[in-house]
Every structure is written in C-alpha cells, then in structure tokens.
Amino acid sequence: MPELPEMEHYRSQLSPRLCGQRITGVTVNRAATINEPVDVFTSALVGKSILFVERKGKHLLFHLDDGHRLHLHLMLGGWLAYGEEGPKKDSHFQVILTFGDGNSLYFGGLRLGYLHRMTAKAAIEELKELGPDPFDSRLTLEAFRKRLAGKRGKLKTTLTNQRFLAGIGNCYSDEICFDAQVHPAVAVNSLDESTVERIYHSIRKVLTTAKDAGGYMEHPLTPDDTLTGGYNNQCLVYDRKGEPCNVCGTEIKFETLTGRKMFYCPHCQQGA
C-alpha cells in the first residue's frame, strides 16, 4: 500500500506539472472508482483547473478552481502515471484526466481505491479523524510522548493507526522500528523515555529518507522517471524474510501481527 513517502513523492512530482492546468477530457473506465454518475463527474471536471495538490497522510487532494476537491486514496494496489500516453492501454486505468498541454494523469490499480469529487467541507469531514502528520511542526517530542501516554497496544499497531499518526503503514512501521532498535510487537506502555525518543526521531528519519528516494513503489510516474521506487532496494527489514540483517547478519524474521505483515531482526530488535 502506498504510504506517506509514496504520496508525498507523487505530490511533489505532480504539483509543478498540474498546477494551473485546465482539464480538457475525462475518461472513466470503472464507475465504482468515482462517487457520482459518470456523466455528472465528467461534465463537472471538464474546463476546471487544478490550483494545487495537497497531501493528508496517505491521501491526495487535488484542489479545483471551483472550490471542489478530487480526493484520491490509492489503498492497496493503486498507482499513478503521467504523460502523453500511459505505460499500458487506456483500458487498464480506472480514470484518466487529460489536460490542455496534451498530457494525461492516469489512475491505475484502483480496484479498492477511489477518486471522489467533493466539496471542501465534505473533504474536511472525510479526513477529520486522521492523526497529525509526522512532519507537523506541532508534533514535538513532548507532543509525541503525550500521544503515546495511555496507549496499550503493540508498537506496530499503534504506528499504523491512522488516528494516531497519518501516513505510516506496514512497510515504514517496520523500517522505523528497526532504525529505533525496538521490536515492532513490543507493548507501547512498556517503552521507556529513551526508546520513545529514538522512535520519534526514527519516524522522521526513515520517512524523509524514503521520500527523498522516491518511495518503494516501482511504477514510474513518467516515461523518463528514474526516481520512483528508489527506496525499494534500501529497505532494511521490510519484505526481506530469510535474508541476513545488514547490521548483524542475523536472519530477518517474518510474522503477522493483528493481520499485518511484520519483518524484524531478532538480534537488533529485542524486548517484545
């Protein structure tokens, strides 16, 4: 599932390409991906311009010049492509937006994801339960400690709870725990102050590194894109079951925790 680094990468790459662009065409190949009749959705978008692109956790909001938003959530398998033509046949994409410069934004893999047109008020209501962004300047170490206070779940479960923090999922929760040298299944209420501080700094360190490397998803955004997916080969534990730990050489273990994948080094990450 695309997480904060992937969505921030998309936002930063799409903003200079889309801002100020007028939508000249809309193709919907799967009506279930949108939230209103195809003809209503299409007629409402043609002629509108995108003012800016905003990220909220794992969500993207395309702000339109009529005050509405396009709310995108890629869910498990969604991805984006941009250019004069898509990397696959148009029929492979659930929605395609074409712009005045001849380029198109292709929304693929949205069998579980969606692209909804809504008012600004509805978008705010939709996302009001999201926790703070990990990069929010108000999320100081002390604020992070307070958010953890009273929590009784496992660390990975807490980090991936979108009401606790917005944007962290399976991949980066494991990478954060490895960087902080703490087992992902440790009980949150057992963490001492120094461990909490390590986790806090690891959150920003790992997410920044992944974002700058283009995230771990390997679908190129544009035909000449060599950045997207650059973090995939940098993962230290995620999806590395049976491989040696880069730090100590111990075999990376895989388990499930409350239905989620969990990868960790049993030597570097103890205490569960």
Textual characterization of the structure:
- The protein has 272 residues and is of the alpha+beta class.
- The protein folds into two domains: 4-126, Alpha-Beta Barrel (N-terminal domain of MutM-like DNA repair proteins), CATH 3.20.190; 141-264, Helicase, Ruva Protein, domain 3, CATH 1.10.8.50.
- It contains seven helices and ten strands.
- It has helices at 4-18, 38-45, 120-126, 141-148, 155-159, 170-179, 193-212, and strands spanning 23-28, 50-56, 59-64, 68-73, 79-83, 93-99, 104-108, 114-119, 253-257, 260-264.
- The strands form three sheets. It has a four-stranded antiparallel sheet. Strands 2-3-4-8 form a four-stranded antiparallel sheet. Strands 9-10 form a two-stranded antiparallel sheet.
- Strand 3 and strand 4 (68-73) form a beta hairpin.
- Helix 1 runs parallel beside helix 7 (193-212).
- It is globular, with a radius of gyration of 20 Å.
Summarize the structure.
The protein has 272 residues and is of the alpha+beta class.
